[in-house]
Write a structure and sequence with these properties.
The protein has eleven helices and six strands. It is α+β, with helices and mostly antiparallel strands.
Length: 449
């Protein structure tokens, strides 16, 4: 029993926690952004930048984006390698080397026996008779263009993620703003209700009920702040700036703007604009050329080895020409040709499948955008927010004056909060749908620049 008492006493002892400043100092010493010359401290000017300016900065500084871009240069190296001709071979040989019991003698001098040394320098070069190098260069060029298309598709998805996080951050910020306002109003209302309860004008139960409602609003408010910090973490990473403990401030706020004003024309799009489709189409062309390449490599004599040699022994010298031709009688690349043909068929099916997928994406994105815009237009037409604000203010004033009961007042407050949250959520989802539609039709990223 004494042992458990000691444990209880130790558990109740105050625990000294590290201060926030100490933790920040430790984190700052290991911050990799400090040594990144690309990562400027631009957070203070972010509040002056619009989304396009933020996007431009992001694609110039984010290491993930820049690393993906390096794949293009790597593919360019493969293209250069494929166009290079085979290197010549130099050969040197000596014959009739004199040997003696004293060991190996200088092969470039006349020995005591055997006469003068014979030397034979030669040069050999592979000659491309079938055009293999030219064909493999064509294949590598298509692969290079395919890599560019793959990067354009990565660019499209990167920008989409950045933009969606931007709109999400604005939505959560709006959420926090009106939740904070409600929280402050409830603090004032709680003081008034406490005063009225102490005077006996209302039941103490009403004070308890409003206190519980204030706790609920405070909980939602704190959860929204946590969500904002999580979105800010992702947004800072995508932009390419160092994470900080202070609140990220961005320019702009959620306000409905028609798709027409934003330049969205739903009747003008082309499936061929999608970079992922372009990449698959280039893959088809590459695989078709690869079939021809495999056939050339499997020809009877794709390369001929041509060489020249000079032999010299004493006062005599001879010149000779040699031709080596590998005859492909048994192994004529049959397996690789068959594999290339099957890859070509597969790539054609992938293009067909991708076209159907893109068409379905565009249809779904278009339908979502139209529905969300129609809903917001209806909200603005009936002035949803203004009307709900009027109702909420009337019930609040009536309750303060004692002309309304607590149940009606709280119901009006909840309705107004629900409408506010739903309205801003719909605006966020509307802009999210716009970015999804742009990405679906291939109108995000390098393809338009």
């Amino acid at each position: 029993m004494r042992f458990f008492s000691i444990l209880l006493f130790l558990a109740l002892l105050p625990v000294t926690a590290q201060s926030t400043e100490d933790v920040e100092d430790v984190l700052e010493t290991i911050n990799p952004y400090r040594t990144d010359t690309r990562s400027e401290d631009v957070e203070d000017v972010l509040k002056e930048w619009d989304l396009d300016r933020i996007e431009k900065y992001s694609i110039s500084n984010n290491p993930i984006y820049l690393a993906e871009k390096q794949n293009i240069n790597m593919s360019r190296g493969d293209l250069i390698t494929s166009a290079l001709y085979r290197n010549p071979v130099f050969q040197y040989q000596t014959q009739f080397l004199p040997l003696s019991s004293n060991g190996f003698q200088n092969p470039f001098t006349t020995g005591s026996t055997g006469g003068p040394v014979e030397i034979a320098p030669a040069v050999y070069q592979d000659i491309d008779l079938a055009g293999v190098i030219q064909q493999q260069t064509k294949v590598a060029k298509k692969e290079f263009l395919s890599q560019i298309a793959a990067f354009e598709d990565f660019d499209r998805m990167f920008r989409l993620r950045l933009r969606q996080n931007y709109w999400l951050y604005l939505y959560v910020t709006e959420l926090i703003n009106f939740q904070k306002e409600f929280h402050e109003n409830y603090n004032d209302l709680l003081e008034l209700t406490k005063f009225r309860a102490e005077k006996g004008d209302i039941s103490p139960l009403e004070y308890d009920r409003i206190f519980l409602e204030k706790i609920r609003i405070e909980k939602d408010y704190k959860e929204s702040e946590i969500l904002r910090s999580q979105v800010a973490k992702d947004l800072r990473f995508l932009i390419g700036i160092s994470p900080k403990s202070k609140i990220l401030t961005l320019k702009g706020h959620l306000k409905y703007v028609s798709s027409k004003e934003l330049g969205i024309k739903m009747n003008e799009f082309n499936i061929e604009d999608r970079p992922d489709l372009k990449g698959l189409q280039l893959k088809v062309a590459k695989n078709r050329m690869n079939i021809e390449l495999q056939k050339k490599q499997g020809g009877v004599a794709p390369f001929v080895n041509l060489g020249g040699e000079v032999r010299a022994k004493g006062n005599e010298s001879y010149a000779g020409v040699f031709v080596t031709m590998p005859l492909k009688v048994f192994d004529r690349n049959q397996g690789n040709i068959f594999k290339a043909e099957e890859q070509y068929k597969k790539s054609i099916l992938e293009v067909e499948s991708k076209k159907k997928q893109i068409y379905a994406e565009i249809r779904a994105a278009m339908r979502e955008l139209e529905s969300r815009e129609e809903l917001l237009q209806g909200y603005d037409k009936v002035k949803l927010i203004d009307k709900n604000r009027e109702v909420q203010e009337k019930y609040r004033l009536a309750y303060i004056r004692g002309a309304s009961n607590l149940v009606s007042f709280l119901e009006a407050e909840k309705n107004y909060l629900t409408v506010l949250k739903g309205y801003y959520e719909q605006i966020y989802l509307y802009f999210n749908a716009i970015e999804s539609y742009r990405a679906a039709v291939g109108k995000l990223g390098m393809i338009n620049e």
